[in-house]
C-alpha cells in the first residue's frame, strides 16, 4: 500500500514513516520544514520505498498528485507548540484549517481515500474534569488569550473531518494526541522534555514555568505510532474520535527532578513566571489526563514505555548528536 504522511518530517511523522516502511508500505512524505526537519528523515532518503516532497499541504496541485497515488493518508501537518502558536497566530490558524480543508477535499475527490487526522488534547481546553473523555464538553478561555486559537483550529479540523465522513462518505479517523514525546522532538517550540534534558546534560538551570505543580501525561512516540496505525487498519474506526496517550500523570516539578536523576545532572531548578515566557494573557491547564477506555476497547492500546525510559532515550539521543545538544534545533 501507498501511504502519504503530511508533516512527515516532523517529530511524530518521522517515526510513523519508519514504522510504515518496516511494515512494507511505500511512504510518501510532504513537509514544508517549518517545524519539521530534514534531519529527522535524512536516514530514510536512500530507502527505496520512501520519497520526500518539500512543500505545503495548501498547495493543491502538489497535494492532488500525492493523494492520487496514495491508499491511506495520515494528516499530521500543523503548526505545533504553544510558543509557536502565540508568536504566529495568523499563520497557525490558516495552516491548520486551510491545510486540512485541502487534504479532505482532495481525498474525497480521488475516491474517498482513508484519512487519519491527528488532532490534539488542546481541544479539551481548560476543563477541570479529568480524565478527558472523547465526548466531554470543551471548556475554553476568552479570545483575548491567543493560546486557545490552536484549540479552536484543531476543533474545526475535527468538525470538517466528521462532516466529510457524514456528508460525503470519506472514511476519516480522528486521533487526539496527548503530550507525545521522545528523541527528535524540538524544545524551541515550548516542548518541555527536550528542554529539560538539554539543560540537565549541560548542567544549566532547569527552567520550570509557573509553580511546577501543573500535571501532564507523557506517551512515548513509538507507542503512539503503533496506536495510530492500528486505528487506520480498523474497519469500523472511520467516523470515530480516539484519545491516544498515557495516563501516568506527573507534575512538571517532579519531571524536572526525574530528568536530573536520569541525566546524572547537578542542575539547579529555577521557576519562571508564565507571563515572562508567553505574555500577560496566557492561561495554563493545571491537569491533563486522557481517558483511554475507548481506544483500549477498540485496539487494546496500552503504552509500554515508562517515562524514565523515555528520558533516558532522549538523553542518549543528545549525547549521540552533540551538535543538537549545543545549538538551537535546526532544519
From TrEMBL:
InterPro entries recorded: NAD(P)-bd_dom, NAD(P)-bd_dom_sf, UXS-like
Ranges for domain NAD(P)-binding: 4-311
Keyword list, A-Z: Decarboxylase, Golgi apparatus, Lyase, Membrane, NAD, Signal-anchor, Transmembrane, Transmembrane helix
Protein's membrane topology: Single-pass type II membrane protein
Entry's Gene Ontology BP terms: D-xylose metabolic process; UDP-D-xylose biosynthetic process
EC top class, as a word: lyase
Broad class of the protein's primary localization: Golgi
Compartments in which it is found: Golgi apparatus, Golgi stack membrane
Pfam families with a match to the protein in the record: GDP_Man_Dehyd
Pathway: Nucleotide-sugar biosynthesis; UDP-alpha-D-xylose biosynthesis; UDP-alpha-D-xylose from UDP-alpha-D-glucuronate: step 1/1
GO molecular function: NAD+ binding; UDP-glucuronate decarboxylase activity
Protein name per Swiss-Prot or TrEMBL: UDP-glucuronate decarboxylase
Source organism of this protein record: Candidatus Hakubella thermalkaliphila
